[in-house]
Design brief:
By secondary structure, the protein is mainly alpha-helical. The protein has eleven helices and no strands. The radius of gyration is 20 Å and the shape is globular.
Length: 214
């Protein structure tokens, strides 16, 4: 549960982060500064508050839950709810990683591609995307690592149902409260090992991306 929800939330953050970073860098529109400042909102908001807000929105009688639950979409006390709150927590990491890279891209290269007959899609795929791959990988790694150890927000929206919506950080705290220190340590070691493997894999990907696209 911990690994899958962290992966899906980081993947969603990559998609959303690329779109938002692109809009903030390439377009001028009313409210741009407000949107740019709101990107950092999850950094300022206590994670426990985020979990409480999400759980209240997606419960059966919540603002969104009253419409989604009758359709069979459980946004609270489910895997979907965990992914949603982890997307909120990790979103700024991807945007802030991509923004300076997008700002540093040479517009002349894009214009040259257009002069050679490339359309916007071809320019994005063959010119822009290879240049931002390392930043995308880094943003994914940061969002994934943040989600992997998240506790405050998830503890409220997950419901902590054993073998269903219980993630590793919550399980560690539960074992500590039961004075089962050996079990808590064992889970923490597994989580630490996952983090090391993730960081090592991401470093390999970054080196490969820099070597092939740098």
């Amino acid at each position: 549960m911990t690994l899958s929800t962290s992966f899906y939330s980081a993947l969603a953050n990559v998609v959303l982060g690329v779109l938002v970073a692109w809009v903030l860098v390439r377009y001028e529109f009313p409210g741009k500064r407000l949107l740019d400042s709101l990107v950092d909102f999850p950094f300022a908001l206590p994670t426990a508050v985020a979990g409480l807000v999400y759980s209240s929105l997606f419960v059966q009688n919540g603002w969104y839950g009253r419409f989604l639950v009758p359709l069979g979409i459980q946004g609270a006390y489910s895997k979907l709810g965990i992914v949603l709150v982890l997307v909120f927590i990790g979103f700024p990491f991807v945007v802030r990683t991509l923004q300076p890279v997008l700002e540093g891209l040479d517009r002349d290269v894009e214009e040259a591609a257009a002069c050679l007959g490339a359309n916007r899609l071809q320019t994005a795929v063959r010119v822009i995307f290879p240049s931002i791959v390392p930043a995308i990988v880094t943003g994914f790694a940061l969002a994934f690592a943040r989600a992997l150890g998240e506790y405050g927000s998830v503890v409220f929206i997950s419901g902590n149902m054993p073998f269903k919506t219980e993630i590793a950080p919550v399980l560690i705290v539960a074992r500590l409260e039961e004075f089962a220190y050996a079990e808590a340590t064992a889970i923490a070691i597994v989580l630490l090992g996952m983090s090391f493997v993730t960081l090592f894999s991401i470093n390999l990907l970054q080196r490969w991306s820099s070597r092939n696209h740098g």
